[in-house]
Design a protein that fits this description.
Layout (H helix, E strand, L loop, with lengths): L2 E5 H14 L2 E5 L11 E5 L25 H7 L3 E2 L1 H13 L22 H10 L2 E7 L19 H13 L3 E6 L8 H5 L3 E4 L7 H9 L13 E2 L16 E3 L8 H7 L4 E3 L10 E8 L17 E10 L8 E7 L11 E7 L8 E9 L5 E3 L9 E4 L2 E8 L6 E8 L3 E5 L11 E7 L5 E7 L26 H5 L5 H5 L4 H7 L1 E3 L12 E4 L3 H5 L4 E5 L19 H6 L3 H17 L4 E2 L23 H17 L3 E2 L1 E4 L12 E3 L2 H8 L1 H8 L5 E4 L3 E2 L2 E2 L4 H11 L5 E3 L19 H7 L4 E4 L9 H7 L4 H16 L2 H6 L5 E5 L15 E4 L3 E4 L10 E8 L2 E11 L7 E8 L2 E9 L5 E10 L3 E8 L5 E13 L2 H4 L1
Parallel strand pairs: 1-35, 3-4, 3-5, 5-6, 6-7, 9-29, 23-34, 25-26, 26-27, 28-30, 29-31, 30-33, 36-38
Antiparallel strand pairs: 2-7, 8-10, 11-12, 12-15, 13-14, 13-18, 16-17, 17-20, 18-19, 21-22, 24-25, 31-32, 37-44, 38-43, 39-42, 39-44, 40-41, 40-43
Helix pairs in contact: 1-7, 1-14, 2-7, 11-21, 14-15, 15-17
Bound molecules: beta-D-glucopyranose.
GO molecular function: hydrolase activity, hydrolyzing O-glycosyl compounds
InterPro entries: Cellulose_deg_GH3, Fn3-like, GH, Glyco_hydro_3_AS, Glyco_hydro_3_C, Glyco_hydro_3_C_sf, Glyco_hydro_3_N, Glyco_hydro_3_N_sf
Protein name: Glycoside hydrolase family 3 C-terminal domain-containing protein
Length: about 950
């Protein structure tokens, strides 16, 4: 039996290192950073105490035992923090508590800042050498950013803070605790000495950032996005936040692909940019000998490679890390190309002054190709290398990269012949370059090709006829005793209809508080030895809504800015062991949608505007989790680029942009990261909701890329059968036909059958289609720890150095109660001393409003106060203020909405002295199906 060790100290150290390496230093006049030991600092901005560890929504819901905010980390550091300013903030915060809004998607993007008097700031400037000014922002699921004050722009309060502090201090450091890039025009207005993006760094985030501020860790983060002067400079902004249709008019010209090609002057900080505390000499070359002999004549295949070499030396006085970035400039040809595209990068280890590192990297020719979605090159629906000169560039950001070699092709080569997939069905105008007489490129708008009535072939193989029970269990397939076909032949059509749906949230069949159970969820499926698999959010750590604590990781943007693949892999190996410890097979992350527009609320979960960086970082994280025998679910496949109306909006994207930008990261994660679990989106791409899209989930994903894992929907996603068909949450047949294997989620898979039976009866859906999904699910589970748990072969997980209150392991024994009609559960005998919690699970009959009443007594006199707080899935349902009742029974009631079917209820006793007797759940208005809810 294998053994895994989760060493908290190592985990925390890796997360802290990542939080530090992801910090991007954009300004550093007079080497203001790093601050010297003992340097006196006044810290401004409330976010120093209220650090945003992540954004909001499912990607941020991690319960933690601690968060090391900036105040904590600064206090622990070698700096001397001004007490007067700190005390002023602490006093002010007492009357200005953090505004959480009304929960999910309602949290304000920012908090009100404390007004600063000249007296306070000038006093601080007379005592301190340096001012640190912290700006905080959040956004997230169902809550995009907006080009408004408090989101993309600073608030008046923040402007006032910067103005007064920069006026009084000569050394100023602006620290941006944000999930996403923000407007940077304040740099011109207030000219701060240093500007550091620290992003949202998880529970160790404050410590990581302060390590960079003090120089304990050198600044080495690089921007994963371009920062332009204005939000309107991004060509996507004008087509963002649309209600029904988003037209991706900028086409492949996303981020630096647009700016470097057409509008260099609009860039404030280029992609890949970031300052260091030292200097480096970076030498790189294209190894001409590595080029295939017949290359010029077009004798080259997609797997042939060229080699680039690099040699980096630390020429400064302190240790540091540098990232070398390789770009290609392709001939404009017929297709038109961005003037630079990232093809590879490498980050050094920590180099001491004078120390160097060199390396050789192989780059395949597929990475240099472009997709022809119109046939203009003579090779329709092919990845091609158009004739002309290919220049390879190297540098430390996209702007300073210079030529290191080139080669020319005398004819155009079709590297991979594919077929038209996911093309727009509606007219789309898209950007393309036109070359001026002086050689400069200007964007012009042209019509993109539309869909050519291409219907997917039904490639689903026949399956074995139903045999009924032959006594085979899933483990027999694993042990080679029986084939998967023979095994699945035992499952009835009904069993197959059950296996293609998961259950959640917080299903009692798997780890408490997690997002979904899937696989062996019915007695029949369990009988055949199919385990129940478990998955949960998300990119920044394990979300367990019942309150189990987990490790909260830095967000995706920060992790991409590290440009450090091995660090990502090592960190996610820890995450993998933590998953294993909590019986979770698949994390619902990494999130890898493209940062198409800086206003997308979920950008904090995603990596970058660049697909290569996204794919490579995701692959590293998958590799890490893979070392622990678990995996991640890469999401959202594909085109989830705004939160507003995400269930209903149709993204109209050219096939070329889909393939080169929006699918590319996923392709890399499948081909190089061996992804085995994918989540489709809520929305539609070119008329078809992704969950029912055969071209996406079968033709491209499995046919072209060779994916053999599972595909799941996003939670309660809509599906449609064909363009113009109205999507619904019950069109499961289209989902199965498309080979999106799992519907996430139902309350009970046996009760939510949607159109499956009717589709089977009509012959539109056949047993073979269901069997194909069942095979994907069973293969996934067979190779996961879920089967090892079922067969008693699970590895031993050892937890070491875990802080006392970390509670890193789920309570797998939570008792569940069915709530049918008015249901009273006894509470006699539970411990109800001050600070005690009592937890249990409930399964309700549907969605709706409940009255929850608690009956209790107390021997105390009527003036005694004994509050009991009821939390449902960790959200406060209400606090019941009991008074002493001199022994009499008292019932207090509250009403509220309860979402979903499975919940955790936790009673928290704020004071001792109360004797709880019972809790009653009374449904007020309950609906039992999704369609009722709509
Ligand atoms: C989100 C997913 C998430 C799922 C489960 C959805 O609302 O879009 O990213 O994994 O919920 O929480």
């Amino acid at each position: 039996m294998s053994k895994f060790t989760l060493d908290w100290k190592q985990y925390a150290a890796l997360a802290r290192q990542a939080a530090a390496e992801g910090c991007v230093l954009l300004e550093n006049k007079n080497n203001t950073l790093p601050l010297a030991d003992g340097e006196t600092c006044a810290v401004f901005g409330r976010t120093q105490f209220e650090y945003y560890k992540s954004g909001t929504g499912s990607g941020g819901l991690v319960n933690t035992s601690y968060v090391h905010d900036l105040d904590y980390a600064l206090t622990e550091s070698s700096l001397t923090i001004d007490v007067e300013v700190k005390t002023a903030y602490k006093n002010w915060l007492k009357d200005h508590p953090f505004d959480l809004g009304n929960g999910w998607a309602q949290e304000p993007w920012c908090q009100v800042e404390m007004p600063l008097s000249d007296e306070l700031v000038s006093g601080a400037a007379s005592r301190c050498q340096t001012a640190l000014i912290v700006i905080g922002r959040t956004a997230g699921e169902d809550r995009d950013n907006a080009a408004e004050k408090g989101s993309w722009y600073l608030t008046d309060g923040e402007e006032a803070m910067l103005e007064i502090v920069c006026r009084h201090f000569s050394r100023t450091v602006v620290i941006l605790n944000v999930g996403n890039i923000i407007d940077m025009s304040f740099v011109d207005r207030y000219e701060p000495s240093s500007v550091l993006y620290i992003w949202q760094g998880g529970m160790e985030g404050g410590s990581g950032a302060v390590d960079v501020i003090t120089g304990k860790v050198p600044a080495s983060g690089r921007l994963s996005d371009t920062i332009a002067y204005h939000i309107d400079d991004y060509p996507s902004t004008r087509n963002f936040g649309c209600e029904d249709t988003i037209r991706y008019e900028e086409d492949i010209y996303v981020g630096y692909r647009y700016f470097e090609t057409f509008a260099k002057e609009k860039v404030r900080y280029p992609f890949g940019y970031g300052l260091s505390y030292t200097t480096f000499d970076v030498q790189a070359a294209l190894d001409m000998c590595s080029l295939p002999a017949g290359l010029a004549k077009g004798e080259v295949s997609k797997t042939d490679t060229l080699h680039v070499t690099y040699d980096i030396t630390n020429t400064g006085d302190v240790a540091g890390k540098e990232t070398v970035q390789f770009y290609v400039q392709k001939p404009q040809g017929f297709l038109g190309k961005p003037s630079r595209e990232l093809i590879r990068f490498a980050k050094t280890e920590l180099l001491e002054p004078g120390e160097g590192e060199s390396g050789i990297l192989a780059i395949d020719f597929y990475s240099l190709s472009s997709y022809d979605d119109s046939g203009i090159t003579g090779h329709a629906f092919c990845y091609v290398l158009e004739e002309g000169t290919y220049t390879i560039l190297a540098g430390t950001n996209v702007r300073n990269a210079t030529e290191i070699g080139s080669f020319a092709l005398t004819e155009t080569v079709a590297l991979e012949e594919l077929s038209q997939q996911l093309a727009p069905r509606r007219h789309l105008e898209r950007m393309t370059p036109k070359t001026n007489e002086d050689g400069t490129l200007v964007p012009i708008i042209q019509a993109a090709p539309v869909y050519l009535q291409h219907y997917s072939e039904d490639t689903c193989p026949q399956c074995a006829d139903y045999t009924g029970d032959k006594g085979y269990k899933l483990d027999d397939v694993k042990r080679g005793i029986v084939s998967m076909d023979e095994f699945l032949a035992q499952l009835s059509d009904l069993d197959l209809c059950h296996i293609v749906k998961g259950e959640g949230m917080s299903s009692p069949k798997v780890t408490p508080g997690t997002a979904a159970a899937f696989g062996g969820l019915t007695p029949n499926l369990t009988y055949f030895g199919i385990p129940a698999g478990c998955c949960t959010d998300g990119p920044s750590g394990l979300r367990m809504d019942c309150g189990t604590n987990a490790f909260s990781l830095p967000g995706g943007t920060l992790l991409a800015c590290t440009f450090n693949t091995s660090l990502n892999a090592d960190l996610f190996e820890m995450e993998g062991i933590e998953m294993r410890n909590n019986h979770i097979e698949s994390l619902l992350g990494p999130g890898m949608n493209i940062h198409r527009c800086p206003l997308n609320g979920r950008n904090f979960e995603y990596f970058s505007e660049d697909p290569l960086l996204s794919g490579v970082i995701a692959s590293a994280q998958l590799e890490g989790m893979g070392r622990a025998g678990v995996t991640g679910t890469i999401k959202h496949f594909c085109g989830n680029n705004q939160e507003y109306h995400r269930r209903f909006v149709d993204s109209v994207i050219s096939e070329r942009a889909v393939r080169e930008i929006y699918l590319k990261g996923f392709e890399i994660a499948v081909k190089s990261g061996y992804a085995s679990s994918i989540m489709t989106t809520y929305g539609s791409v070119n008329g078809l909701w992704t969950a029912g899209n055969h071209q996406l989930n079968t033709d491209i994903l499995r046919g072209e890329w060779g994916f053999e894992g599972i595909v799941m929907t996003d939670w309660w996603a809509e599906i449609n059968n064909a363009p113009k068909d109205k999507p619904s949450r019950e069109k499961f047949a289209a989902m199965v036909l498309a080979q999106n294997d799992l519907y996430m989620v139902t309350s009970d898979t046996t009760q939510v059958m949607g159109d499956l039976e009717a589709a089977l009866a009509s012959g539109r859906l056949e047993r073979r289609h269901l069997t194909r999904c069942a095979e994907n699910i069973c293969r996934f589970l067979m190779n996961s720890p879920a089967l090892l748990r079922l067969t008693g072969k699970e590895a031993e997980i050892e937890l070491v150095n875990v802080p006392e209150n970390a509670q890193l392991t789920s309570d797998f024994d939570i008792v569940y109660h069915d709530i049918k009609g008015v249901t009273t559960l006894p509470l006699n005998g539970i411990s109800s001393e001050k600070g005690d919690s009592h937890m249990f699970g409930i399964t309700t009959e549907g969605f709706g409003t409940f009255r929850i009443s608690i009956t209790a007594s107390s021997e105390s006199t009527p003036l005694a106060q004994m509050p009991v707080s009821v939390f449902v899935d960790n959200q406060l349902f209400g606090t019941y203020s009991f008074n002493g009742s001199e022994g009499k029974e008292v019932t207090l009631s509250r009403e509220g909405g309860v979402f979903g079917f499975h919940h955790y209820v936790r009673l928290y006793f704020g004071q001792g002295g109360l004797t709880p007797i019972s809790i009653t759940f009374e449904p007020i208005d309950i609906v039992t199906s999704f369609s009722d809810k709509d």
